[in-house]
Amino acid sequence: MHGSCLCKKVKFETIGDPLSFVACFCDNCRKSAGSAFLSLAFFRANSFKLTEGKGCLTVFNDTCTTSGNTVARSFCRECGSTMYGELHGRPGIVIVPTGSYDDRIDWVPAMESYPHRKEGWLKDIAIPLKPKPKA
């Protein structure tokens, strides 16, 4: 699947389905998205390829996260779109905000991170979670 920033100067592609798809309600994800939550797809680094605009990226090392893990958040310095993140504690994993995909995705979140931090108006909106596989 292909994705890009708002100004189309940064482009990427991912191969296959994500390892995990999460709706995150932590304060840092909400602030970086400018929204009530951020939907994130986790991929192995070899399933993510930056195809254009590497020179347009700026990295913000987010050190004050709820989890305590530093997140290197890469964004387009031209339009400000968040493009991907990398957790310093989980090398080899790339986190892609799903709103940056050019086409609609059909994945369903497997979990919610920090659901206790949901905005009050979201508590009545159910995000259907993908059932866990039976062992």
Automatic annotation (TrEMBL):
Keywords: Lyase, Metal-binding, Zinc. SUPFAM superfamilies: Mss4-like. GO terms for molecular function: carbon-sulfur lyase activity; metal ion binding. Pfam families: GFA. The keyword Lyase applies. PROSITE patterns: CENP_V_GFA. Belongs to the Gfa family. Transmembrane segments: none annotated. Residues 1-108 form the CENP-V/GFA domain. This is CENP-V/GFA domain-containing protein.
